Amino acid sequence: MTNKKEITSLMTAKKIVKIACLSGAALVFASCRGQISEKPPIHPNMNMDQQPRMEAQEVNKFFEDNRSMRQPVEGTIARGLKKEDSAYYLGVDENGDWIADIPVKVTKELLYRGQERYDVYCTVCHGGTGAGDGIIMTGNYGYVPAPTYHQDRLREAPDGEIYSAIYNGVRTMPSYATQIKVEDRWAIVAYIRALQASQNIDEATIRQYDVDITELQNEYKAEQERLAELEEARKPEKEAEATVAMGEQLVGQYACGTCHNEDGADGGIGPTWAGLFGSTAEGVDADGNTISITKDEAYIRESIVTPDAKKTAGYEQAVMAPFDYLSETEIESLVLYIKSLSDN
Description:
The protein has helices at about 5-30, 85-90, 110-120, 125, 135-140, 150-155, 160-170, 180-200, 205, 215-235, 245-255, 295-305, 330-344; strands spanning about 280-285, 290-295, 310. It is mainly α.
């Protein structure tokens, strides 16, 4: 039989061997830290890395052009993007004309959604009531002024035209096709119509509702007086004189060059200013009657303040916003500048 002393010695020996093994392993692992190996890492499962397919831009000798990336088969349409309904997606009918009415049901929920989206994307330029007095327009940032929605032309415009402005952009307004989804575009159109109705309602219609008209009129009068006082306080002590230099500065400030050029080139959105002063041309008046236009100082003034009054042939589409808020000095300076382009 093994005595007690031998058992104790055997257990002590096993402990020593175990400690030695652990110490050796620790030294091995510690010695591997920071070392660089030229051997590839062990990667036992390669099927996810090496798949029978081509990477983007990878050469593929199977095709004549050696490209692995292929064009979709002609006529391929991504799932959910067929967009056969041109009235809904484009705002036009089968003939390419703007549709007259919103192609979705107008509900209270749609109007509230349109108001929320309008406040996000449209208020900065078109203003809270659609009067074209947003901060971007009143802050002299050099943009073509946004037109008021409360003019006859836009009140009578088809719904598809307003949708198209959101979808395609117009003048210096960019397209919002990527920011505003289709259903929200129509919601905005519906809300714009609500703004137009609210700002152009007659007194007889208002009296059908529980509204204190006298109170509204007093509030409006007080607001107008406040704005008049503010405008008076902002006027300089000495009115500046009209100059060609001021006119040139205003042209840049209001981005007039977006539509008009000064080199006589054709094809712009508006007529060229080169040689314009004193010239004559055929055109139409506000009623669509053919007239002869003499482009004198009175015509230029009228075109700045009321651009729809007389339109030169070839430029009948009414796209210019009225600049009726300019001061007399500013209008005179613009006239002088345009005249100088003909004098030179």
